[in-house]
Structure formats: C-alpha cells, structure tokens
Amino acid sequence: MEEKCLYLLSKRDASLLRGHPWVFSGAIHRVTGEPQAGETVEIRSADGKFLARGAYSPNSQIRARVWTFDKDETINAAFFGKRIQQAYDYRLRLGYGDMQAFRVIHGEADGLPALVVDKFGPYLSCEFLASGPEVWKRTIVEQLSKLPGIKGIYERSDAEARKREGLELTDGLLWGEEPPEDFTILENGVTYRMDLPGGHKTGFYLDQRENRLAIDRLAPGATVLDCCCYSGAFGIRAAKAGAKSVRFLDYAPSAIGLAKANAALNGLADDPRISFEQADMFQQLRKYRDSRQTFDVIVLDPPKFATTRGQLLKAAKGYKDVNLLACKLLNPGGTLLTYSCSAAMTPEFFRTIVGEALTDAHRSARVVRSYSQAPDHPQSLAFPEGHYLTGLEIVVE
User: Fold this and answer.
1) pLDDT tens-digit map of 178-200
2) At what angle are helices 312-329 and 347-360 packed, to 10 degrees?
3) Which domains does the chain have, with CATH numbers?
4) Catalytic status, residue 126
5) pTM here?
C-alpha cells in the first residue's frame, strides 16, 4: 500500500524547519496514498526527507496541521494523552490550578492544532476546529476525561472556521453530565454566570482575565463606559472598585441580559451608579458625542473585525472609527482601554490605527501599558499567528 504522504515543492520547507505547524495548499507538490480528511500523513521535502507528521485537510487552504516534528512519535491515544497532560501541567506551573476557570489547551501553542479546551469549574468546553481533532475527537475526549475533577465535557464547535474545513457546525454533550443551565465561576473576586451551551465561544472570554485587573486602578471615582460589554466583566469590576458611574453598552439583548444578571450576582442589581444600553456601538457613540456626554474611562473590547488578512483593510476602518469616537468622548486626562482580538491585526498596525484616530480627533495621548492574551493562552515563537489579542492603555489629554 502506498504511503500517505505530502511532498512539498522545492524550497517550500523553510517554515516547517523553523517549527511552524501549517502546510498551505500552494506549498504541496503531490499527495500519495489517497489520505482522507483528518488522517495522519507524513510531510516530506521535495527530495523525500521527513519533516513532520500531521493531519490532512483536503478542503482547507491549510492542507495539513502538524502533530509532531519527531519522526519516532506515533499519533495515537498515548500521544494525545501526553500532550493534554503536558498542557495541563503547564497551567498548574503558572498557578492556575487554584482558579475555577482557565484555558487547558490552546491549539498550536500546545502542540494540538485547531483544538481549544476551556475549564469552567468541573466542566470542560471544547472547540474542534479542523479535520484532525475532529477525527480524533473520541480519543481526545477520553483523555480529557482523565483530568482531575471533571464531571462533564461539552462541545462548542460552532465557529465559522469549521466550514472552511468542510465540517458542519455542532455542539452538545460529549461525555459525563450536562452542565447546569446556570452555574457560576469566581474570577479575581468577581462572580460570573456561565452559559456553556449558549454563551460566546466556549462560554466566557478567559483571555482578558489579567487585563481586567487594570480597571481596579482606573475606576475609583471615575465615570466608566464599557463598550461591547457582553458579560459585563470590565464594568462590574469597575463598579466594585468604586466607580462613580458605569454604563454597559452592547448590541445584543442577550449580552445586556447577561451583564444585568452578573451585576445582580455581585450585589449591584439596584445600584444607582450603573445603567445598561442596548444599541449599535458606532451609532450610540455618535449619539454620546452629539449630546456632549463624556467619560473618564472607556473600554473598547469589540468582536473580531477581521478573520483573514483579506479583511484587514475593512477592519482597520472599523477600528479607527470606533477609537476616534471614543477619543472624542474622553475627558482630559481620561483613559482609553482599547483592544483588538483579530489575529490578522498585528500589534504594530493596531498602534498605527489608534494613533491615526487620535490625530483625527485632535487629541494627544500617552501609551501607559500594552496588553496581550492571558498566559494560559500561550504564544509560540514559531507560530506568530497564535498572537491575536492586542490591547493598549492610553491616557488622552
């Protein structure tokens, strides 16, 4: 039987030799052995030299994702058990073992491409985003169930990335018991309601955990606007830290409902300092501008504006517009916490866009701090695409 292999074109192996885990369709010379979607294939150079072993994705521009660069490593249940345990142990070394919620597996950076697993109390929430982890799903779930204290494993493979793999969107219970319709987690002294089946992504944005702590410094006595508030995580911290007022803004009624529920969980249900507004962010910020409303602190944490590099210029316009509007709404000496969660948006380009917004708003500013994703969302030097969250803390004069 002919071996299942991908042979690269001449001089197209440089990225793999640097440890980058993706093989694009344009780098492939020929495929042998008729591999099926998700099957393990050997990836070889033009002259037949072994480079890596990975998962084949015939429907994707990323034609293969590397499982291992070790020729002697077999892709089997023991392989996944080892990688999962290594990822979990890394979080324990970071001190996350005492936390109720953290990311257990972050795809390529943990040697498990296109697999995301978050832990919320005794439940795991998973995304299987490509053909490789999809084929190995049962094995992966079996190995995940061995982690300590796990009662149930839920799937949230409803991201658009699956369509590019020729996979259907799917969710539901994979193992153990169903998560309760309502349960809570405690993050740095704030309680949040969890909705694993219906929440965004895997249920909650854990990547901003450390970044949210910045609001504790900025909020006392300040008027705060939390844009695209979703669960209200920034704004609730602001209110608990002693903000003069906090306004929660989001387009989705479900997000406003979740923010209200979380406010109530933290003793803020009838607090006269807080208010909620369900509206389009761009339109509402213009209304604030036209009515001369201003704030001391504004948080901009919008959804992903660019999924691919081809969408970057359109996204740049959106980022510039929203940051320009926010700059105009800040009191002198006020602080803008602005974020991009688009992997295609580099930190350098994001700084340029925010700088142009400040110029057009006729405001001067100083960058106080830069932010990125939490350490349980690790970044590999060989895989720069794994850096996706960029944030700036800016004092605007």
Assistant:
1) 988 778 999 999 999 987 877 77
2) 50
3) 5-68 (2.30.130.10), 77-181 (3.30.750.80), 205-396 (3.40.50.150)
4) no
5) 0.94
